[in-house]
Amino acid sequence: MKFADLHLHTFFSDGTFTPEELVERASKLGLAAIALTDHDTVEGCARAAAACAAANMEFISGTELTAEHEDTEVHILAYFVDTQNQALLTRIAGFQSVRQNRIREMVAALNKLGIPLKAEAVFALANCKSPGRPHVARALVKEKLIGNLDEAFERYLKKGRPAWVPKTKMSALEAVELIHQAGGLAVMAHPGLNRTDEIIPDLVDAGLDGIECFHTKHSTTMAGRYLEIADKFHLLVTGGSDCHGFSKNRPIIGTVKLPYEHVEKLYAAKKSADEKRRTPAAK
Ligand code: AMP
Ligand code: ZN
Ligand code: FE
Ligand code: FE
């Protein structure tokens, strides 16, 4: 049996692995294909693609966009996007500045609470264009301002906690459109995580291509429910570990194994979308 992991992060966003380290782990696990889905960036894709080629593993370029629909946060995974697509690069660069400004706001909120963390310490640790809350948590631990990462989220960074800062997001409908114009397929990430079932029909109407049925935080029952939903709305099925390296816990790459038949269906959908773009239906 061949398997894939289509949800992975590197140090180009809030993971800790380099693309090469990630590929080496995937290769040792015997995975047939992986996709890189760093938050709001495609920067790691070229290095991951090269490492995959050397390891004789299939690679799908991707990203994970933080979006919202009717006040519900939803993460949209992009697969097969052209990593040079100008509209995509411009739009995600905007969200990278949103992320950087938000780090400053979170640090200012921590300072107000008497915690002497410096934004520069977070940026130095993150060392990437797409920093997030895990970097703030890691900086707090590194500077010995808190015991561990979980505590940092529980006390300060979780939604509703004193250093939580909301993030400006793109609309989910725009995310789907942005991914399509960059030649990609749009997939709803981990729907079981924030119970976003009610928005699925709207996203399907907007052209959503697939849904992540298999995810580390989905129970078997949940995966079953999303497989039924995928079937009902004729959506592609994806899955991945959402491994962040050592950022949150032990590396979890390999804990979710997507049967390769689903990857084949993704390739077929990409091919057919490309053909449709080349020969638009006559009106
Ligand atoms: P951000 O994009 O900056 O809002 O950060 C989101 C990242 O933080 C995601 O990778 C989440 O998995 C991680 N995260 C969110 N909540 C928690 C939590 N309670 N504990 C640890 N990590 C979390
Ligand atoms: Zn993340
Ligand atoms: Fe996510
Ligand atoms: Fe993720």
General description of the model:
The protein contains 10 helices and 9 strands. By secondary structure, the protein is of the alpha/beta class. It folds into 2 domains: 3-90 and 168-278, Metal-dependent hydrolases (TIM Barrel, Alpha-Beta Barrel), CATH 3.20.20.140; 91-157, no CATH class. The protein is globular, with a radius of gyration of 19 Å. It binds adenosine monophosphate, zinc ion (ZN) and fe (iii) ion (2 copies).
Compute the separation of the termini in Å: 44 Å
Topology as a string of helices (H) and strands (E) = EHEHEEHHHHEHEHEHEEH
What Rg do the Cα atoms give?
A: 19 Å
Given this structure, which CATH class of the largest domain is correct?
Alpha Beta
**Poorly predicted sequence stretches spanning 5 or more consecutive residues:** none
State the helix count. Answer: 10
Bound molecules: adenosine monophosphate, zinc ion, fe (iii) ion
**Rounded mean pLDDT score:** 96
The share of residues in extended strands comes to: 15-25%
Largest sheet: 9 strands, mixed
The CATH architecture of the largest domain can be named as: Alpha-Beta Barrel
- Tell me the CATH superfamily of the largest domain: Metal-dependent hydrolases
Total domain units: 2
Q: Tell me the total number of β-strands.
A: 9
- Can you tell me the overall shape? globular
**CATH topology title of the largest domain:** TIM Barrel
Structural class: alpha/beta
